[in-house]
Amino acid sequence: MATERAYWLAWSQIAGIGPILIKRLQQHFGTLAIAWEADYPELMAVEGFGPQMLQVVLWERVQIEPEAFLETHEKANPCFWTPADADYPRLLREIPNPPSVLYCRGQVDLGEHQGTTPTIAIVGTRDPSEYGRKWTRKLTTALVKYGFTIVSGLADGIDTEAHTSCLEAGGRTLAILGTGVDVVYPWRNRALCDRILQQGAVLSEYPAGTKPDRTHFPQRNRIIAGLSRATIVMEAPAKSGALITAYVANEYNRDVYVVPGSLDNERSIGCLGLISKGAQVILGEDHLLEMLQVMPQLRLVEPLFDESHRSGIIQGLEPELQQVITIITMESISFDAIVQHTHLPAAAVSSALLQLELLGLVTQLPGMRYQRC
Length: 373
Description:
Elements: H1 2-12, H2 19-29, H3 32-36, H4 40-44, H5 51-61, H6 66-76, E1 80-81, H7 90-93, E2 102-106, H8 110-114, E3 119-123, H9 130-145, E4 149-152, H10 158-168, E5 173-176, H11 190-199, E6 200-204, H12 216-226, E7 230-233, H13 241-251, E8 255-258, H14 269-276, E9 280-281, H15 285-292, H16 307-315, H17 319-327, E10 333-334, H18 335-342, H19 346-358, E11 362-365, E12 369-372
Parallel strand pairs: 3-4, 3-7, 4-5, 5-6, 7-8, 8-9
Antiparallel strand pairs: 1-2, 2-6, 10-12, 11-12
Helix pairs in contact: 1-6, 9-10, 9-15, 10-11, 12-13, 17-19
């Protein structure tokens, strides 16, 4: 796994090769180490690779020695994960364009990585009304009481209110940045960032020292959505980065909740548009908590099953879950082997494994290996 980690990092350094293409390489060749050695015709067989891009790949690839680059990179970036690492966040594995490298500063909670700690995004305009601020505080405080980790983007306005309210309620919050994890933007949030580092973490797909760039923030929004079981949009005008987060969350099959506002308030127009497209309306703290009870990670699971009960559950599983659990025995098996035997997409296998864990039917072992309970 250490070797594959080096190749995830190395591929991410090549110009024009983003998360989707890297994931295609991994799926096509089985490992990125094998893909690194592939020649021109072999790479041409991968969807998305054309002659011009391959010229760039072949030129830049010889400039990087993956293992040596990893060793140097770790000195400047002491904490980061790639999809080859067991601690890479589980929810991000389920999305089609997971960050190839995810950098971190602060306090790590493995429950968030494994999907056992519930996470929810709260986003909105940088210029909220007092109504938007009030309801951000109320909903954040209610969610913290029920053990949710609050995910947002450290921007002005709703993001700042969500992080601050979470910290004041004694909760844990994750700030997803469009800069390196050592660069605070906006600068006026540096004190808030320091507090987050003590009570949560800051995450980014950009290495240390990366300055703000307008192209980074829409990309950052997909990580906010990807790390969260659901996204709440507090206030958002017709053109808002928060709407990008909501649209992406919907594409990822995650729930989207909206605080309704007035037609006379420009900050609410984007929210009302989301409602017209099917987003769920929040009618208060209790209503939100009631809706969240239907989310998979909050369903109560019996702590102990007898064998007849367990067999009944297995027989009643959806076909995709049946297909996955049939492969898993009391002998541990790797994630990649499950994908290979089931012929299912990696994202589908990851989702199925999470559901099977929540049902108490399988357990995850170190090194992304699984076995029957």
